[in-house]
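Table S2 (text version). Query chain:
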Amino acid sequence: MPDSAPSQANPQPSDQKATMENSPLTEFVVQFWGVRGSIATPGTKTIRYGGNTSCVEMRLGKKRLIFDGGTGLRVLGLNLLRQMPVEAHMFFSHTHWDHIQGFPFFTPAFIPGNCFHIYGAIAPNGTTIKQRLADQMLHPNFPVPIQVMQSDLKFNDLTPGDIVELDDVKVETALLNHPNTAIGYRVTWEGHTAVYCTDTEHFPDRLDENVVHLARNADVLIYDANYTNEEYYDFKNPKVGWGHSTWQAAVEIAKAAGVKRILMFHHDPGHDDNFLDRVEADVQAVFANACLAREGMSIPVI
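Corresponding structure-token output:
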């Protein structure tokens, strides 16, 4: 089992750690363990927002849901060691590297007695989520195969549009506009809803109907705001077709869908803390109940 952290992971601020024990079982809480896209970005210029790649935890009563397994999953795993045995439902939007690199370093998965229900869509080439997670742990890419993980791993294949019922938790899915596809998730519990919608690109002539449907009247929308409009439409180096969106599109979707709060997510590796501060100010000037996700941030869904 890997016994050291990937060098790209930023340390987790001690005052931002949260466990199931300090959250009442009547609460719906979203916590960010990795907020970057494309590649982890350690360093002095990314301290405030964090440098780990995509990983978001939702705690709903006694249920724990984990969305994506970027390098932030390693940090979440260290936190979970204080709470074993652990059972969680892990939902992958897709399996580009920045969303799965933390999985081989997820320590709780190596420990007997823990249980992880893993969900993901079948890829366009026909491979399952199990195959793709296992492939990244094969030689010569990684020294420890997935078979060394001694927790109970239960794999579930999804088709976009499927609905997953976890007792009183409802998880809806929809296809997103991303190279090689991705899926978004809408989580509803006790009359409240949080939407995880990353690695998606708006269309030039309309809002994506799937995203608007997922986000309808949501309390919280976690949305891919990788670019600004200026970057996305830049004449010399446009980002059209790269599979990511803008904060301006996030605001349009939130207004069209009746979203209460937006959390901008999947920050570009080239955006340092000062750049993201300016983006947040611009966002809040047009949608007051919005902010940029920060590593360690914990948000109640109310």
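Notes on Table S2: Residues 3-22 have pLDDT under 50 and may be disordered. The radius of gyration is 18 Å.
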